[in-house]
Amino acid sequence: MRYADFEQALDSLNIVTRMTNNELKNQYLRLSKKYHPDMQNGNDDKFKEVNEAYKNHTTIYEKF
After folding, report:
1. Of 13, 27, 34, 38, which has fewest CB within 10 angstroms of its CB?
2. Which of 39, 23, 38 is nearest to 13 (CA)?
3. More reliable by pLDDT, 63 or 1
4. Which helix (H) or strand (E) holds 59?
């Protein structure tokens, strides 16, 4: 993953620099619920972006 992709993932999840894993997971769950296509005013594109960002972010930290 390129650095620019990593930065985009952080922006998609509204991540601040010093978040714990629990805070990150809670942020992901909140955003995925907010943008879920089955919810009222859901946004399928934003939902996919949030899921991809979380997946990429957790994959990076599993490698370390």
Report:
1. 38
2. 23
3. 63
4. helix 44-63
Ranges assigned E (strand) in the chain: none
45-54's contacts with Cβ under 8 Å and 24+ in sequence apart are: 49/12, 50/12, 50/13, 52/9, 52/12, 53/8, 53/9, 53/10, 53/12, 53/13, 54/9, 54/13, 54/24, 54/28
Report how far residue 64's alpha carbon sits from residue 62's, in angstroms, rounded to the nearest whole number: 5
| pTM attached to this predicted model | 0.69
Token code pair at residue 37: 């296509």
**Per-residue pLDDT tens over the stretch 6-54:** 666 667 777 666 777 888 889 889 989 999 999 988 989 989 988 888 8
Cβ 14 vs Cβ 27: under 8 Å = yes
